[in-house]
Amino acid sequence: MSTHINANKGDIAESVLMPGDPLRVKHIAENYLSGAVCYNEVRGMYGYTGTYKGVPVSVQGSGMGMPSMGIYSWELITEFGAQNLIRIGTAGSFHEGIKMGEIVMGLAASTDSNFIHAFPAPHGFAPSADFGLIKKALSANEELGFKLTAGNLVSCDVFYETDPDWWKGWAKMGVLAVEMEAAALYMNAAYHNVHALAMVTITDHFITGEKATSEEREKANSDMIELALEVAIK
Length: 234
Description:
This protein is an alpha/beta fold. The chain has 6 helices and 9 strands; from the N terminus they run E-H-E-E-E-H-E-E-H-E-H-E-H-E-H. The chain has helices at residues 22-31, 66-80, 131-144, 168-172, 182-192, 214-233, and strands at residues 15-19, 34-40, 47-52, 55-60, 84-93, 103-111, 148-155, 177-179, 195-205.
């Protein structure tokens, strides 16, 4: 076991989906996986392993923010041998053409965080996704047909910004949406030479002011979960 994950060697699959919300972990385990077994309840951050279409897949909560994602993804990689880590979460769109309920795949993750100070990376290092997982997602979506956009995300430390226009500079540079974890996942994966991809569903919109209802979030997340599971078993 590790400091934050109460599992044994072999309890966790090489491919791990990482929602921020531990209750979403339980939802995925109970509704998408066969034979799911809970291997972690430490701090209420659930982790399950089961099979999807006969292939072992784990689902591990990451919590909110880069420090929390940094802890759980690091331990999954270093203590349990995770090789493919797929973040599935929600995000706010910066662009009119990227609408509510659509899925955005983070080719890269800009950030305002100083999380990178822990790594021996030169100034200007750009955390990015694994190309192999990107190709698998595009291939899987050819059959699923979900609305999928790919580009730069920004992982921010602060949820409640005091400047209402803080996001406009990121949007001007073509960043598609804001979330809070992808950059940490990508840095950990790069340092340990494993594979990572972040996919997020748009549930808030900075231009239109829209915010998804609970029902809309559930439907949108179901599309993203299905796509992520297909990527995990390819």
